Amino acid sequence: xxTEPSAHAxxxxxxxxxxxxxxxxxxxxxxxxxxxxxxxxxxQWYIGLAITLSALFTGLGFIGWTFYKxxxxxxxxxxxxxxxxxxxxxxxxxxxxxxxxxxxxxFLFRKxxxxxxxxxxxxxxxxxxxxxxxxxxxxxGRPWVAFWLFPYPNQRALWTNFRSPLLWDVFAVNTxxxxxxxxxxxxxxPDIASMRDRTTSKLRRAIYTALAMGWRGAxxxxxxxEKAYLLLAGLATGLVLSVHSVVSFDFATSVVPGWHMTxxxxxxxxxxxxxxxxxxxxxxxxxxxTMQLKNLITMxxxxxxxxxxxxxxxxxxxxxxxxxxxxxxxxxxxxxHGFMNIITGTYGWAGWITIxxxxxxxxxxxxxxxxxxxxxxxFVAIGVTxxxxxxxxxxxxxxxxxxxxxxAWRIYKPTMTDFGILxxxxxxxxxxxxxxxxxxxxxxxxxxxxILPDAQPSHGDSHE
Amino acid sequence: MSAEKAYSVLGLFxxxxxxxxxxxxxxxxxxxxxxxYTPYPIHGIDDALGLRRSPLGGMVLVMGVLGALxxxxxxxxISAIDYPIITGGKSPSSWEAFIPIMFEVTVLFATFTxxxxxxxxxNRLPFFGHPVLSSKSIKGITRDRFAxxxxxxxxxxxxxxxxxxxxxxxxxxxxxLPAPDRSPFLTSTYILRTLGGIFVACAVAGFGIYTLTxxxxxxxxxxxxxxxxxxNAQKASTFFKDGRGMQAPVKxxxxxxxxxxxxxxxxxxxxxxxxxxxxxxxxxxxxxxYLNRCEVCHGxxxxxxxxxxxxxxxKPANLQSQQFLxxxxxxxxxxxxxxxNAMPSHAADLNESQRWAVIHYVxxxxxxxxxxxxxxxxxxx
Lengths: 464, 381
What we know:
The complex is a heterodimer of chains A (464) and B (381).
Chain A: H1 26-33, H2 43-69, H3 84-108, H4 114-139, H5 165-198, H6 202-212, H7 219-252, H8 264-290, H9 299-329, H10 333-344, H11 348-360, H12 368-371, H13 374-401, H14 416-439, H15 445-450
Helix pairs in contact in A: 2-14, 3-4, 3-7, 3-8, 3-13, 4-5, 4-14, 5-6, 5-7, 7-8, 8-9, 8-13, 9-10, 10-11, 11-13
Chain B: E1 6-13, H1 16-29, E2 33-37, H2 45-49, H3 56-82, H4 99-122, H5 138-141, E3 146-151, H6 159-168, E4 173-178, H7 188-215, H8 266-269, H9 280-293, H10 295-298, H11 322-325, H12 329-338, H13 352-369, H14 373-379
Antiparallel strand pairs in B: 1-3, 1-4, 2-3
Helix pairs in contact in B: 3-4, 9-13
């Protein structure tokens, strides 16, 4: 899977520090990581699951209320036709992007530290996209006919409109979900084969046998497998950049002041990676501590992740400044009004939460002390998660509530139902994360085995 | 061992180095096909085993291009030919907006080719019947050990000789795998055929139904959206004898809410009784209608001195006069509907209940202008 030259040939300063702490062998790795599904979960796990399930069922209750009452149960009004539903959709799709970035882009860049965290990040991608699609589905009002979104020959003699960014979204998100799932599953196959061959329970063995598809680790299989993995990484890289770009087209192709800007696609992609990495840091810290994976997910992993967050924060700062610059330099009074609304309007507090949480707070990560302290990194990560949610609030609600026609201006207020459904998706996300952590290998053992010391044959000549 | 047919012989190694050093020796012995089984991919093993390059890249490229063309063809045919609609002032055949979906479908085709092509076509998985899976060595192979297999190429395979070759090459353990005695229940070939069959069935059914419903209307299974039998105004119809869809109303038809009453003489209408109760709401309706329609001539208190009276030739009726105090409700109603002397008909302006409400209001005005002591008792709490 990795073809970089042996580290021994490099000068001392260029040798990467070890990616694991202490002695880790392929066997000990399996015993450590693959043991989780075979041991009963601790009490804290059940407590956590109870909390997340309560949140999930609260959300389901509010979704039920929405179906009973209609979309009027939400705070949406005219002209803020889109509010929490699209905010939460963009928020969750964005969270997913970190997983694909870690698993695909860092794979292409041969960043070996990604191997230990890729599995969890990919799982989070899939769960986040599942949370995201709930919102457009329930916002269509009649979700039982949501399949009308797809172009298929039908009795109504209608076709979908291929010039609508909303249809692009349907294709982008569905493709993203399918590709992420495929990527994740392919990575899981050798690990599931390991679990199949070590478990003693008949039921588990039957399930793992079916899931592993008879994987036997043949060299001829590995050859095609690695090729497929490389190709998928390349495809997913293009895809991850396109998905949030397409999501941003939902806004950028309209003429609403504050939306109609060419900076939107890269700005959205950077924001997505920013939010996603923060979520990965939050989850990884908890996993590292509670599952005793300190030797595999090291402080170095967290340090690198925090650096990525810091870099993304700087890109976000540039994007925000660019928004202000565009508003000023365009001399367009509508754009100007929209930007002033963000910093001084009725929702100015939301604008300042966005700027503080996304720009100011992450600057703490310049300090090594903050990058290596759980308290500060969690503080920043939660701040970014809140800030990125508010960023979408700012983009969507502030732009919509006052556009060209002052007679149509109106203040938007979310309802209990809006918050309830948002809480529900957090419940769903963390429920799935908790279940995943106890059912499947949380670390891609096969990939980590391949980068352990002495895992690859030495080339036999100069240094042996 | 010789009694049952051997499928292959496995030799186990503890390190990747030992495995890599053994491969050339075992291959040189030419005892059968050489295959390695490892827990993770080993660098350089492809060349050592003499494996051909994986054709997956080419397959993905072809399918990716096919995906792009499929998406473009589908989008173009739908948007420009089958269901042309103009969006944003662009020509129905403008192609630029098709690019995002072309990209997504390209990635989708390429991904499924890479993933499923690798599993089903190239690796022939799922395959649950391979002898290695039921070997003792598999626990090590998917964990931390490395196996080299010499697989039988023909009837003359000598398992004992193969085992010796492996041991000479440094294998720590050797295991002979018997040939499987039954065929596995689920194989990639079976899955591929099933998927192919489903795909062909869907394609044929979809295309067939589309063609049939489009060109042979008889076969449309549900037509109630397209064909709605009904009579349209201004259109011909075979339903009626005169061939018209629109017929004159039956004699005596009245519009809802506009019951014509008091069409006879005023004296005949005297018997009509005001059907409305004397409630606050009715008085409010009456007051509003009176102020809008009557006040300009009859005056705010009904004494015939309205704001237009001076400019107006005729003298409006003084509703406070004894004549009108004694006037039956029905006659007043008749006057509103038909008009009287210079007063025009108000039938078009006031509906039935408004007319009766106006009459209640006029009665109230009359009573207010001729208040007696006992009226005060009614008002007093």
